[in-house]
Amino acid sequence: MEKVYIFDTTLRDGEQAPGFSMTADEKLQMAHQLAKLGVDVIEAGFAAASKGDFESVHLIAQQVEGPIICSLARALEKDIELAGEALKPARRKRIHTFIATSEIHMKYKLRMSPEEVLERAKKAVEFARRFTDDVEFSCEDATRSQREFLYRVIETAIKAGATVINIPDTVGYAVPEEFARLIEDIRNNVPNIDRAIISVHCHDDLGMAVANSLMAVKHGARQVECTINGIGERAGNAALEEIVMALKVRKDFFGGLYTDINTREIYKTSRLLCRITGSFVQPNKAIVGDNAFAHESGIHQHGVLAHPLTYEIMNPEDVGFPSTRIILGKHSGRHALKRRLNELGFKLSDEDLERIFEKFKALADKKKEVYDEDLEALIYEEFMKVEEEEPIKVKHYQVQTGDNLLPTATVVLSFRGEERTATSTGNGPVDAVIKAIQKALKVEPRLIDFSIKALTPNTDAQAEARLVIELDNVKASGRGVDTDIIKASVSGFVDALNRAIMRRNYILSKESIREEGTV
Ligand SMILES: CC(=O)SCCNC(=O)CCNC(=O)[C@H](O)C(C)(C)COP(=O)(O)OP(=O)(O)OC[C@H]1O[C@@H](n2cnc3c(N)ncnc32)[C@H](O)[C@@H]1OP(=O)(O)O
Ligand SMILES: CC(C)C(=O)C(=O)O
Ligand SMILES: [Mg+2]
Question: ipTM of this predicted complex?
Answer without folding.
Answer: 0.98
